[in-house]
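Many introductory courses stop at the sequence. We go one step further.
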Amino acid sequence: MRIETNGLAVPGWLRGVTEHDPADPSGVNPVLRRTAMRALGAVGKTREAAVLVLFGGAPEADPQGPGGLPGDADVLLTQRAATMRTHSGQVAFPGGGVEPQDDGPVSTALREAWEETGVDPAGIEPLALLPKIFVPPSRFDVTPVVAYWRTPGEVGVVSENEATRVVRVPLSELLDPANRFVVRHPLGYMGPAFAVDGMLVWGFTAGVLAGLFAVSGWENEWDHHDVRDLQASLAAVGMTL
């Protein structure tokens, strides 16, 4: 769902991810099909949450880039602390559970992003709300908030109890077919993954990114038949399951 931008023009290269819901043309992205209604025993036991999918980069489209993607385009990601109760050590979007003072998912996503990374909400322009995705381990029903970082500023680890890294990952690296594959969890889960900047992005975060890339106009063809063991892929970048 598009968000009113108060007259500010949405960068042309971001229109694909703001005007279309994430898609799974290759059939390897089960994350997009997870809803609380489909999860057995989940209804009535979920908690609302939101994450910030924050894209940065020049406002002008690059005519030489796929889908107009500028060379400096990136997305803000964090690596969760190993001591976190759920999803410890995983790469994630800034975000978390709704608090009583929040006024909807945008408010939650911006507050959590500020608390985790120090990003200034004043420089962020929310653009769209994506369909909710249910996350079984935490029982969160998560609304991804797509936003543009119109006025970038400094970010970093605010609390080592929550995150060990805060990284602006170049989209060119995430979109590089050499960095994309499918991982298989020991319990049977299979889904898209990205190996970038010494990190393995998988699970919910990779599912959202892959779904957005599929409708972005930026994507290069990649080998979705390349299936790798999740534990081995994590070990290759010094991470554990």
